[in-house]
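QA checklist item 7 of 12: single-chain prediction sanity check.
[x] sequence parsed
[x] length recorded as 262
[x] structure emitted
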Amino acid sequence: MRENRIRQRWATGEPVINGWLAIPSTFCAETMAHQGWDSLTLDMQHGVIDYQTAVNMLTAISTTATVPLVRVPWLDEGMIMKMLDAGAYGVICPMINSRAEAERFVAATRYPPQGIRSFGPIRALLYAGADYARQANDTLLALAMIETRQALDNLDEILATPGLDGIYIGPADLSLALGCTPKFDQEEPAVVEAIAHILERTKAHGLAACIHNGTAGYARRMLERGFDLVTIGSDARLMASAAQQALGEVRTAEKAPTTSGY
């Protein structure tokens, strides 16, 4: 079975730099995958990607060594299994608020006896290899999103869920839950404190800590704090930012005074 390079990096103490795909485009996914990201996540919750487009995007990512992940829309066992069958090497599940929900999530990502996943890896066999069934449980990743007050209250119980590989902090929803402005790269004390608490407890349980970031600078700070995976923006945000920068440079040049030879 094709190795999961995320697990490889974590096993040697190396962090993972994750990209985010919100645009429903095979070409965009392929272009992003060729830029050297350790992993790329298809966002099926807030991105505009449907199932068939997701399959095509996973196929495009397969042309590189970049590890394909998917954020599913919700705790829906059928969708989780379907995306794993399509070749995702890990699932990020939003709004995990309790140990019971974490157990349901993990069970959907594992074949019996560890879980309830139904067998039918129709495209995963092509991506991963013929011995997929035997090694999938030990290769694929289950990452639960911690982003509500309820999840904070139940944090240690969630983190103690057998088979859970790590957590993924959603700063915007976490901020809303704490009565703060919903955004990435938070500096508001309540959110900063909550992020630090989640990180500390996650490490105490021996799990991987992951977080979404708006900028590369903030992502570097999170790596320095000990996060194992950082996401930087998204394809849509990166495209918009680069376009704004290019336009700004040209328009600034247009307004610059010209010198005369007379």
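[x] summary fact logged: The chain has a mean pLDDT of 96.
[ ] second reviewer sign-off
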